[in-house]
Design a protein that fits this description.
The chain is of the alpha/beta class and about 325 residues long. The protein is about 40% helix and about 20% strand.
């Protein structure tokens, strides 16, 4: 059972709940917490979810709560990132929700800027740009897509959900009602991509703040930076679900891009798998799935011939496809 420090009876609920899942990040957590407590927007609660961390993180969380009354701590058995975020959502009291990953940090004005953006536009969601930095805070070479359009209707945000500014959970401010019926899928990698289409369907309007206010730390020991396993095909499964969501909502003009995204998700994981895992049943199923998605897309819209050919080659001759990709670089 979760062990959460409850707010005193009758205490006014904060306007914002900031949820931070915590697991094996003792070298990064203090900077993360300090950056949140230094926010110029002060009407918030910080919910630290200790997801059964085996290091000094539980003590660091409790120490932060002792020093600042805005900090609440949940201690629970390890369940993964989604389970930790969900526990935070269940405990949150704010009218607005934010997420910060515990190995990252944020600019002092982040939530003030995002809150001003939703207030001035009537949006249900605000998202900002982010900077990719190494563990020393030095900027890394970034290839993520920066959105130029400032305001999106929910349907248009859905159509652009493959963009790397839209996918993450952590560069956003959400109206709490968005999560009334939504929770992150537990036991999955790429949980952000699984949920973002559903988030898009819950909002009327989103506003983009084109300023980097979130610092995404690229570290060697993170979940997504290690060797690829069959679990990493979760990204392709999420991409397929996104494609299905577009079909269900008749967003056909975004299908070709979603099909390309699905095919690319399968290709990236497959090419980075050990040879033995390339022959596993799930690998074969993912290869078949991406070709099925690309082929079905042709029922709804035009698909570039090159995409269909690459998808066919990846399905029928994956080793040849992989060698050709290596030659291409």
């Amino acid at each position: 059972m979760n062990n959460v420090e409850r707010a005193p009876e009758g205490e006014k609920a904060p306007l914002l709940s900031i949820i931070v899942p915590v697991y094996k990040v003792e070298n990064y957590l203090p900077k993360c917490i300090d950056s949140i407590l230094a926010q110029t927007f002060t009407d918030f609660e910080l919910i630290l979810v200790d997801d059964g961390s085996p290091d000094d993180c539980p003590a660091l969380c409790d120490a932060a709560a002792e020093k600042d009354a805005r900090v609440r701590v949940i201690h629970q058995k390890n369940g993964g990132l989604s389970a930790a975020r969900n526990a935070g959502l269940d405990a949150a009291r704010g009218a607005w929700i934010g997420f910060v990953d515990s190995d990252d940090y944020i600019a002092p004005e982040m939530y003030e800027v995002l809150y001003q953006a939703v207030q001035s536009t009537g949006a249900d969601l605000a998202l900002c740009d982010y900077a990719e930095v190494d563990e020393a805070g030095v900027p890394c070479q970034s290839i993520h897509v920066r959105l130029e359009k400032k305001v999106f209707a929910g349907q248009n945000l859905l159509k652009n959900a493959t963009d790397s500014m839209i996918q993450p959970a952590w560069n956003k401010l959400y109206r709490r009602a968005v999560f009334a019926q939504l929770r992150y899928p537990e036991g999955k990698l790429n949980e952000d991509l699984f949920l973002i289409p559903e988030v898009c369907l819950q909002i009327q309007k989103a506003v983009v703040v084109p300023k980097a206010l979130y610092y995404y730390v690229q570290r060697g020991g993170s979940i997504m930076s290690g060797n690829k396993t069959l679990r990493h095909f979760d990204a392709a499964e999420a991409a397929q679900r996104y494609w299905d969501c577009l079909v269900e909502n008749a967003a056909y003009d975004a299908l070709a891009n979603a099909a390309k995204f699905t095919m690319g998700s399968v290709s990236r994981v497959y090419r980075q798998l050990p040879l033995a895992l390339r022959k596993a049943p799930r690998s074969r199923e993912m290869l078949r799935m991406q070709f099925k998605v690309v082929s079905r897309t042709r029922r709804y819209c035009a698909v570039p011939g090159g995409l269909w050919l690459q998808s066919w080659l990846l399905w029928h001759f994956p080793q040849t496809y992989s060698r050709l990709r290596e030659l291409k670089g």
